[in-house]
Amino acid sequence: MMFMEYVYAALALLLGCAVVAAILYGMFSKPTPHKKLRSRSGFTHGIDDVSVPGDGTND
């Protein structure tokens, strides 16, 4: 083997190890909890207070 073949083999081995490590990390790491979004209850508060003709409520 020539010197460059050893270099290519080492790079291929390193790349293979990196792929296996990334797969194992993805399998065994805990998922991060999503950041809670702002509550929309303030925007919809009181939306049901008004009856609309034909909505079935006889207010």
Automatic annotation (TrEMBL):
Write out the ranges of the annotated region (Disordered). Answer: 34-59
**Residue ranges of the TM segments:** 6-28
Entry superkingdom: Bacteria
Which keywords does the record carry?
Membrane, Transmembrane, Transmembrane helix
Please give the name of this protein.
Answer: Uncharacterized protein
Which species does this protein come from? Parasedimentitalea huanghaiensis
